[in-house]
Amino acid sequence: MLGRRNIRDSIGYVTLGLFSHALLDELLEVKKRPESPPDRHRMITIATQSLKAIRSPAEVDPSHWRDLVFQNYQEARTLQGAFAANTEIENPEQLEEILDYIIQTDTNKSKRLSDIEKATKFFEILAQMAIINAECPEERIPPGARQLVS
Amino acid sequence: MSHNIDLHKCTATFKLVYSLQELIASARADKTYPKWSDNFLKYCEGTADATFDRLKSWSDINGKGTLPLPMLSQRLSIIIHGWELLHSFIKPILDADNLNVPYPLVHFLTEHVGKLEKVKQAKFVIEISSDLNYFQHQHTDLRRATFFLQTVVGGPPIEPRLGFLALPCSQSKGLFMNCLLYHEVGHFIAEETGLISPTERSELRDELKNEFQKQHNEVAPLKQYLPWAVTTIEGFMEELFSDLVAVKLIGLAYTLSYMELLRLVRKDLSQESLRFSIDHPSDALRFREQLKVLKKDGWAQYANNLTQWKKLNSIAKISEKQYSIPFDYQSDPEMLKVWKILIGCLCKRRRIKSIHTKVDSYLAGRDNPCDLYGKYGEQIEKCFSHGIVPCSQESSNIPHPLAVINGSFLFWISAMEKLYDTVPSRSEKNIKDRAFLENRVEMWCLKAVEDWLITTK
Description:
The structure holds two protein chains of two kinds. Chain A is 59% helix and 0% strand. Chain A is mainly alpha-helical. Chain A has one domain (7-136). Residues 139-150 of chain A have low confidence and may be disordered. Chain B has helices spanning 2-30, 35-59, 69-95, 103-114, 139-153, 181-193, 198-214, 226-250, 252-265, 269-272, 283-297, 300-303, 307-316, 333-347, 349-362, 369-385, 401-414, 416-422, 431-456; strands at residues 123-129, 135-137, 162-168. Chain B has 19 helices and three strands. By secondary structure, chain B is mainly alpha-helical. Chain B starts with a helix and ends with a helix. In chain B, strands 1-3-2 form a three-stranded mixed sheet, sandwiched between helices. Chains A and B meet through helix 1 and helix 5 of A and helix 3, helix 5, helix 6, helix 7 and helix 8 of B.
């Protein structure tokens, strides 16, 4: 009916979509009180740690990998796609910087608001791409490559 | 208009989740499940309740929880996918109620593995699969997905260190083949511990890169295969690791059950044992490494006369040069080169040794199944010969499950004639009678494991 479809094979995309929305909730919360840092920022912290892990994988304890995002093929592929589709945030470093700024205590309110807007837009695009990827069969890739980006 | 569309989507999501919740509630009312499967089902019910609350607040246009409309539509899509994921687990778990799984083995396995320092308090959910194969579903992926789902909709957290093991529906009541579940436990441990460190991965990548560069003049640049080759070798290493974990935890019974599985699914064990598949090393290599552990643990003294042991020894002597590549790649000269490098890289002594070292270190403090078999083996054989469950009136002398499992396997492959003498109404030449008595041995073993669990608790 829907072609060959096994949602377990798309688990990375589903995870990324759920993660993006969990993070969007934190952004919505901080947007209401931009003068102070967010009370809840666990997802934002996971995002920054995950982006750091892309930059310097050797610094990450192997047992912590499993808590991060963007580390497997499906998630890394979608992240790259989101950077390509978003003109305001073009690379992981920029995204990391923006998210870091949002959770700092001493920040400029208008800059924080503008960063929240940028991050919100980015994660909406990321969630949208994750949903599309989860629903559509992807291109043929070498077996096993889904588990690792080398 | 847009709100109506989202209201419709909210309702559709509600109906999907509600029907799953009803399915679980009805199954849990009718049947009992292994402890951690039941806990997972309860977790799904709790998550369903939380999802209903969220749907209600999101669909209330004047409510506090209202989301911007474009975000609501997207959120509903991803929540549906989250539930679609849980959906794919719920059915195989509902099929695996206590009457359809080898309950004492599953219970013992959870206790056994949960005591290991490296994966302390590990617990397992059991699924029934339609394939004649055993699986471990990547639990860390599911854990992350459910964690984020919980963050979005609320509800209970998922149990930490929860693994998902699937066994074939045809083996739901047996014992011998289900020893293969321990291999899946190996995958669980590999996933929990992060088997390959980034440094090891980077060394492996450099090593492969050098090897590919050496071939540069002969064929097209092989560099394009590098990411795939690294992943493939890592996968092979994890398979070997999982075998060694299994053989070290449950002993000879694992290797014998693996040989049994191959007997069912392979046409020609000798030739096919040399061939690598796309995601598994050759059986010859797998058996060779298992044999090292078996010998180190002391199994030779009990298995020397077995045909299977002799077969293992002869397979282990086969040179790595005779290992062959998957059928699909045989006609491609470039892939032939790549696979040759890949196999050479995997079989390097230091790489194989590193896997053994990891297994030894991760399983430090485990009970040696061979020692336990040495202690209870004779008693177990005597019981099976008389057609009774291995037991003891003194609680301190009840045979340990690891001894019973290995004892029943060894009895089955080498001493069944003693049971036929005790039960003359069953003929050794009648396949129905044979199957009946072999099933009985498995049942007695499971009962003995159950007795041990009850007594030691």
